[in-house]
Design goal:
This protein is of the alpha/beta class. The protein has 25 helices and 20 strands. A seven-stranded parallel beta sheet has the order 10-11-9-12-13-8-14, with helices on both faces. A hairpin with a 5-residue loop joins strand 5 and strand 6 (144-151). Helix 8 packs across helix 9. The longest helix has 29 residues, at 219-247. The protein is globular and about 90 Å long. The two termini are 41 Å apart. Bound molecules: adenosine-5'-diphosphate and magnesium ion (MG). Residues 271-274, 277, 300, 302-308, 340, 455-457 line the site of adenosine-5'-diphosphate.
Length: 700
Amino acid sequence: MPTAFATADKLDRNELLGAPVRWPRPSALAAPLSVKPAKAAEAAAQLGLETIGDLLEHLPRDRREARTVATLIAGEGATIVAEVRSIASRPVRRRGMKPLVEAQVADATGMVKATFFNQPWLARKYPKGTRLVLHGKVGSRGDFNVEGHAPTTQSTGSDSEVAHYPATAGLSSTQILALVREHLHIAHDAIDALPPRMRRAGGMPDRAAALVAAHAGDLEGGRRRLAFDELLLAQLSLLRRRARRRASGTAPALDGAPGLTVRWRETLLPFQLTGDQRRAVAVLDEELAQPRPMQRLLMGEVGSGKTVVALHAILRAIEHDMQAVFMAPTEVLAEQHFATLQALMPGEAVRTALLTGSTTAKRRADTLSKLATGELSFVVGTHALLEPDVLFDRLAVVVVDEQHRFGVRQRATLDAKAPAGLVPHVLHMTATPIPRTMALLRYGDLDITTLRELPRGRRPITTEVAATDAERAAAYERIRGELDEGRQAFVVCPLVEESEALAAKAATAEFERLRGGELADYRVALLHGQMRPREKQEAMAAFAAGAFDVLVATTVIEVGVDVPNATVMLVEGAERFGISQLHQLRGRIGRGEHASTCLLFGPKISVRLRAVARHSDGFELARIDLELRGEGEIAGTRQSGMALFKVARLPEDEQLVEAARTYAEGLLAGDPELEAPEHALLADALAAAHGEAQRQPLPA
Ligand code: ADP
Ligand code: MG
């Protein structure tokens, strides 16, 4: 027999039936959203508003201040909140046009005639006394020509503000507001997946209330609750993916005494490891010694010494008589890594091969057979390594450079190449430093090690912004000075987003201009993306060998170029580049014994250029970038579909990200499969948001 809340009083059947109950019908949120006319429906689809649920999760960005009638200015767009005093439709003379609807609308400051086009039914829909949000423009005759409208319960007057939605051509913010008003009651059919205990602990409103508030109340409070849901599901999905890989098999425990690695570090490597490198190596050693497959991300900007750390892990495999793979995202990078790794490698017999799409059939066959027998212990390559006929005898360590370019499925393919029942240890590397919270979103299924400290001997780079003609002239003077000292320089041409061909053309023009002008007395080479791979390599190699003083290039030099004698970089049209791109570019200089200078040609007022000039720490710059642009823009996460959050935003929601991570960890620690009855709704929500595969139990 049920009892009344917090008492022992029994409740009889009639009392139970009389109790106020809520019957959420989540199917109401899944119902398709009907939008009229067709053009608006198309726009809605473009915004991803397919269902009523989509609409209710399409939250306003902010509030837009509404004008009062008295302050309307002819020719300017404005939003007002006003009450209908009279309304009527009026036929139009011109044939084929629907009747106009004209209304007198008023707020406390005055009255204005509002004209609605092509919607004769509005005369009945908005009777006298209806309060409306109207968006439109005041025409030459003083009429308010309505472009968007929605009924509202807001009071009219000077302090009113109107929720402002992300909109698109064909569907305005006010039209979205109207749709939301029409459907907001359906928010009460939303199911709250959060276990009540968690909700109470976090002092959070229930989901239905949050949805309503996010549109028509405490916008920010409501949004935060919804953002938390999104972030929690994302963390649950990432942590389950991590757990799944952990449980997917055993890794070879590389726990033998070091031999080769110690000889390498102590006698063959021409430098001492930095503190960060030593710490990273210690972490790797410990993880590689476990039978649990490592899945770690090594994050550090270009030149921070990641390759050296990765090589340690590779040699650790080799000294256990196991095999290792180093996979790079492009052929050029694979070749460069191959050269770098061989240079850093001990002179002793570590057999290494390169395997890319352009490896000859004969060499490929030879490499494959030696990998399969285990005769070859180490291979560097591209996606070509993922081919099904690439088989290993005893694969233990996989290093993946720039991991975000490899999908989860590709990682699984590599996993499958280890000996039966064994899963390799995987070390991912990225040269794009990002703040911790962003890393939790993007790499939340990995453990993360960062290299912040740059190797000693790296010279600081002075960065300056040159805006005026005089400053530009001085900059070229500076370059010539360095060249006369025997140094070399990069000239980076402006970013041309539209096409590689245009970028190449611009670079060629600049090359010709400099050759005949400011740098006429020097040997100038050209490098752009339209050149053949061979030509590119030759240009790079010639520049690296000192056969040219200046390399005029597009952003193709962004990755993987190492010319220690290059001490100057000039970036044309620097304001067109993003912060991290400029920072990456700048990493091409300051690699030798001489002090280096980076000259950014662009406006002094640019916040981005100033940030790059002021800071040399990539992590700090990533932070600033995040603040300036928000998470969606950074590193193209939106396009790559890595960080598809509808509601959550960075950096505003950093604390929520941390909270979601903590809650997710706690939840899964107690209930790894989300099997407990109070987690059933969460398991459903997880499957809905991240795929039915989320329901699969972890391997035993
Ligand atoms: P990353 O892979 O992070 O770009 P690398 O490992 O390629 O960095 O190192 C960049 C350069 O610095 C290389 O020339 C490398 O030999 C050198 N280097 C790496 N670690 C050190 C160190 N601890 N001391 C001096 N030079 C180092
Ligand atoms: Mg490197």
